[in-house]
Amino acid sequence: MIHLTVDYTKKTTIVNIRDIGGIPVTHGQLKEKTFFRSGELCNISPYDSSFLEDKLHLKKIYDFRRPEEIANRPDSVFEKIAYENINLMSTAGQANPSLKNMTISDNIESHMFDAYTELVLGHSAQTGYHTFLMELVKNPQPIIFHCFAGKDRTGFAAALILKIAGATSDEIYRDYLQTNEDRKEANKKILNAFANRLTPKKLAGLEVSLNVKSDYLEHAFDLITQRFGGFDDYLLDGLNLPKDYVAAFQKSYVI
Q: CA separation (Å) from 114 to 58, 108, 157, 175?
């Protein structure tokens, strides 16, 4: 299910962008035109810049990438949109879902599960998601959040927002898996670029890593249950959010 209008997907060249609002939740509907997710916002065209600023009226960008990723491909600068980097995976290593690690990992399935373990249990991920989620209730406004591909760090952030809002598992997984459709063309370009630089085995692994599987998100939610006892306890003890966080979030964003 895509909640953006046809014009959004046809006219903008930003990869994997969509509005995660508009879906039914427990006590109503998650606000539309408030939470946008995407891939990186590097080398944005004048049209896309105007699209984000003047059509979506975004007020802030949250970039979940590591400093090394940002140095190589920094986000474009916008006159009307504030920017914040929240590095969710500050520990160097194979678990980081950057393009570089996607091309060097020997066991891509293990790499992907490790990445989602880090997103749930890693100190920088817990601190980063705490910061991100707290800012949402302190200053409600239209935002966009992204990483490199907009699939793992961003995908888990979107899943958290949707679950906090009261979305069903079906809705959460539907949005999560939409990435595979929305990244088809971009993934083809990446695979073509690496076709003569990687072994067939690594190229096949790269193709796997450029997509998401429901198993990855399921692994994250299973870890939450195993380590914290449930989602509410994860918010409280893992992300250090206040006890009334869900109520405060829903008051601001569920209509």
A: 33, 10, 17, 22
